[in-house]
């Protein structure tokens, strides 16, 4: 199997979550149910590199997922990780963020432990499905609404594309010494095509090399 990149403590599974600002990279979403504070700092570096080279975010803003924006809110992991993130010189850390901030586009990268991240991801998927199902039900129950959708088709298509996970295809496992993307169990041809496009960009942009350089630079600074 694939090992870890040198200096990487734990790989992190990252996903792209759509929002009003174009989208946010969230990690970890399931690779590590329990995390140490320094893992989250490394996730921040890896997520920043991914956002910079694959999403075109020049100076990615990094947020730490918590139950409030104040530094006094959170658990021990959040307190300790927040302290390390504030001292990191190679990160654009903006502080604690709440779950709702992800959908506002407050930051480009959000870091958390894999347990919390997975709950966040599954909840987001459930809410998106619920909204679509409610919209369909309400439209079908009203003849005028059905007629109105004829004029809304272009906007509805754009909405569907914006919310469609198959546009991104697969989630990268960042920090492994190689290329590892994890696809959804129900992936179709469109998702595979999107995944291959993302993987090609991942290799062309030398994401792993940049991750290695950034984490080593952070180690040098800490030393």
Automatic annotation (TrEMBL):
One record GO biological process: fatty acid biosynthetic process
EC number: 2.3.1.274
Major enzyme class: transferase
Gene it is expressed from: plsX
Subunit structure: Homodimer. Probably interacts with PlsY.
GO cellular component, one term: cytoplasm
Alphabetically ordered keywords of this record: Acyltransferase, Cytoplasm, Lipid biosynthesis, Lipid metabolism, Phospholipid biosynthesis, Phospholipid metabolism, Transferase
Stored HAMAP family: PlsX (MF_00019)
GO molecular function: phosphate:acyl-[acyl carrier protein] acyltransferase activity
Catalytic activity reported: a fatty acyl-[ACP] + phosphate = an acyl phosphate + holo-[ACP]
PANTHER family xrefs: FATTY ACID/PHOSPHOLIPID SYNTHESIS PROTEIN PLSX (PTHR30100), PHOSPHATE ACYLTRANSFERASE (PTHR30100:SF1)
InterPro entries: FA_synthesis, Phospholipid_synth_PlsX-like
This protein's name: phosphate acyltransferase
Compartments where found: Cytoplasm
Organism of this sequence: Eiseniibacteriota bacterium
